[in-house]
Design brief:
Membrane topology: Multi-pass membrane protein
InterPro entries: Clarin (IPR026748)
Shape: elongated
Radius of gyration: 25 Å
Number of domains: 1
Pfam families: Clarin-2
Strand order of the largest sheet: 4-3-2-1-5
Helix content: 55-70%
Organism: Megalops atlanticus (Tarpon)
Strand content: 15-25%
CATH class: Mainly Alpha
Structural class: alpha+beta
Number of strands: 5
Protein name: Clarin 1
CATH topology: Butyryl-CoA Dehydrogenase, subunit A, domain 3
Length: about 230
Amino acid sequence: MPSRQKKVIFCLAGVLSFACVLVVAAAMGTPFWVKGTVLCKTGAQLVNATGSELEKFVGKISYGLFHGQRLKQCGLGGRPFRFSFFPDLLDAIPASLHVSVILFCSVLIVFSSVASAFFMYNAFGSPYETLQGPLGLYLWNFICCFCSCLVMILFASEVRLHRLSEKISNYNEGSFVYKTHTEQFDRSFWIILFTFLAHGLNILLIRMAGIQFPFQEAKEADVNVGASDLMY
């Protein structure tokens, strides 16, 4: 492939990696990872609410990695309330799992930045080592894909398996019990999926630039050595 086309491909991949840095950093600070509704179970049972009457006992909740907000509905009107995970909810949530999600998001930002820098370096510079050369680009993007997968898996398990929305809703509630009514992942969560797909696309762009996969190249070298040994 002509060097000009390689430069264009590497520049496009570098821009994608830098876009991943920006969107993940923005997503970490927003309270739009999960949104849903929460039913005030105690209030609904007290008046035996059914059908359309349940709407008076269904509040809203949305949160991210650091903060969020909820609207309590127990038949007496909505009561908005803002909360922060650190340090308020550390005793109520699986703190180690939550911190792991934040940690891998930070690692994802760091390695996306590294991938973007090395794409630009390979487009306009003269790489001279494996980690700085074209083959090293596979490494950085595989790490980014791995980190984005971990973020989605860990956060999904925290929300679904550990019932994070219910724990947040019932925090410091002495007389009322809340239960998750509806729950879905919001746009900030799906940004992580976009990041995974973007780095997967970068891997394809590297291959389109004519750079063989590292393991494929090593395998071909082993086959050639074995054939020469048989001949001599």
